[in-house]
Amino acid sequence: MTNHPKAAKTAVLHRMVMPEHTCPYGLKAKDLLERSGYAVEDHHLTTRAETDAFKAAHKVQTTPQVFIGGKRIGGYDDLRRFLGKTVADPKATSYRPVIALFTMTALMAMAASYAVTGSAFTLRAAEWFIGMSMVVLALLKLQNVETFATMFLNYDLLAKRWVPYSYIYPFAEGVAGVLMVAGALTWLSVPIALFIGTIGAVSVFKAVYVDKRELKCACVGGGGNVPLGFISLTENLMMIAMALWMALSAFGMAPHVAQGAA
């Protein structure tokens, strides 16, 4: 059997390249083909009329369109399937958003600790990690408070009884998180975190582990596909733990590293 070099493979790509718009999926398809060893015959659809005529001629509704060996493969997702690559399901549940979030906030906390103390692994870094996580989680919710509130009302016990709480929650979480990062106004941040964290933990536990409901978590905002469960419970337990820790520190019952200590 003769092994032909990959460069001998040819693909024909038709994609939109207009002065006001270059199709991103067309660029991704071209890049994927080239990385897969195909020589690409790149045909640009430079006007809306030309694009519509191409769609009508090939009886397709979208571009780009890829042809290999005279056979139409389809668009970008179809090309990925043809090449044996995975295609993400936009409706599939995933923990990736929260994994990315907690990874970045942990790195931020360690970086801040290193900048202040010269060590990334300090007690203050752990405190900052929780506070920064709360701030970023609040930020995600605040991107679209209406959507968050709608999802939150599916399971939060207090929000079901008093709807305005679903709008207050992300602001309260953000304020508590900022104050905890600053180590300021403990008398305010601790009660807020304890209140929303406790209600949240009880609500999630009841919905998931008692009622056995399968819901999406509102923890990363209303547009996420993170399943309600362990991650949601962890968010609330982190707030409770941080609030208790800061309360104990305020009364001198736990070690606390003051911000700005060398």
Describe this structure in words.
This protein is α+β, with helices and mostly antiparallel strands. It folds into two domains: 6-82, Glutaredoxin (3-Layer(aba) Sandwich); 96-250, no CATH class. It is built from ten helices and five strands; from the N terminus they run ββαβαββαααααααα. It has helices at 24-35, 48-58, 76-82, 96-117, 123-142, 145-152, 157-161, 164-182, 186-210, 230-250, and strands spanning 9-18, 21-22, 38-45, 65-68, 71-74. Strands 1, 2, 3, 4 and 5 form a five-stranded mixed sheet that branches. β4 (65-68) and β5 (71-74) form a beta hairpin. It is elongated.
Low-confidence stretches: 1-7, 258-262
* Beta-strand percentage range: 5-15%
Q: Specify the structural class.
A: alpha+beta
Number of domains: 2
Q: How many E-type strands?
A: 5
Distance between the termini: 69 Å
The largest β sheet comes out as: 5 strands, mixed
- What gross morphology would you assign? elongated
Q: Give the topology string: H per helix, E per strand.
A: EEHEHEEHHHHHHHH
Mean pLDDT: 86
- Using only C-alpha atoms, the radius of gyration works out to 26 Å
Number of distinct helices: 10
The level of helicity is 55-70%
Domain Methylamine utilisation protein MauE: 122-248
Pathway: One-carbon metabolism; methylamine degradation
Protein name: Methylamine utilization protein MauE
Membrane topology: Multi-pass membrane protein
Give a brief outline of the structure:
The protein has ten helices and five strands. It is elongated, with a radius of gyration of 26 Å. The N terminus and C terminus are likely disordered.
